[in-house]
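Minutes, structural biology subgroup

Action item carried over from last meeting: produce the structure token record for Pyridine nucleotide-disulfide oxidoreductase (Streptomyces fagopyri). EB confirmed the sequence was re-checked against the source entry. Recorded below for completeness.
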Amino acid sequence: MTETESIAYDVVVLGAGPVGENVADRARAAGLSTAIVENELVGGECSYWACMPSKALLRPAIARADARRVPGLSAAVQGPLDAAAVLAHRDYYTSNWKDDGQVDWLNGIAADLYRGHGRLAGPRRVSVEGPDGAVRFLTARHAVAVCTGTRALLPHLPGLAEVKPWTSREATSAHEVPDRLIVVGGGVVAVEMATAWQALGSRVTVLVRGHALLPRMEPFAGELVADALKESGADVRTGTSVTGVTREGSTVVALTDTGDRIEADEILFATGRVPHTEDIGLDTVGLEPGSWLDVDDSLRVTGSEWLYAVGDVNHRALLTHQGKYQARIAGAAIAARAAGVPLLETDPWGAHAATADHAAVPQVVFTDPEAAAVGLSLAEAESAGLPVRAVDVDMSSVAGAGLYADGYRGKARMVVDTDREIVVGLTLVGPGVGELIHSATVAVAGEVPVSRLWHAVPSYPTVSEVWLRLLEAYRDA
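Output recorded by EB:
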């Protein structure tokens, strides 16, 4: 490798996914010169192998399930999905894995894009090895932001490499529907991809090492999603670990600790994520390659004056929308420090503090039924030592739910801090609840008193009237 040039910028961003793009956007909006480095497609994991393609696969499945619960419509939607049309729709939303539009956007904010592998090369310094092997060195006057995200974690199983398993990338970009699919894992990726491929025609077997799906949510969320997967034809087995895998011709064979031998055409491992930091030069600044990066609430790496870690790499909340939120906070903090602001607003909920990472993280799981949550579960709140009370409501008790779907099944739980009389967590499970979670997010982030929520009147007859049922249950408990 030979050094060809060295260029100075105010800010250098490693990784041009949604998080890196937002850091660059905030830096440019503050008048800071900005370089952004990307080794793959501009737009990152979310645009091409995660959020967008997965939701494009799931939307037809969920829409058909909803339609099948509507009188006068259900008989018209009993047939199979048009798998080719669904996959083509998915391809459209990934721009056929081309990033021209995203590059145009970067050009529009006047951020300089460097294609190649970016690595830290000491304090405030980044090397970029381009596709031609030439190396450019970039220096940052104010900040380097690491926004390199995560990659799939595969277990250490003999023969796994030869099997060529799916990870989330293959599951969201496959161009053919496997007749049989094994999904290993019980988290969000596992249940969403099981939902999508079962709806597209695969016979899905879900193998979960633990005893429940969606273990980080309220227990009823995983229970309701598991029931729906089973009703759709999926085989869901909890308390089951994969002990070995082989490929026999075109068939994958999974062996389990329960003595089962399960055959399929493909096997998806959705068993966690690890930080994409193993080869970005962390050792040149005294950090451990491959590690998660600890940060303060302004997203600055602990012990550093110039290095920021934004998005999944800091392990605070592995969600695209939360990473973009962090990017807005980090961009504001970088700009303020660059301008010489003597005291940043780093108190909770301040302009330079990513407080929502601790108190108000929203998430939607796009299964049928959907599961949505924000803030703390009951178990998390109790573990944190908060004085809390939870109330539960069967969502079928809401008039709007019955109108939404015949036989609507769902559940809601509100967790209230009884000292402060504010909602600290809310979980909803049921068809269409993903569109309800932002109202809960506003209530949690805004620390709106329960007494004031009585005056936030839900429209009748909508599913959002579940708020009234929850407040009544809390008052009457």
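Discussion: The first strand starts at residue 3 and ends at 14.
Next step: EB to file the record with the rest of the batch.
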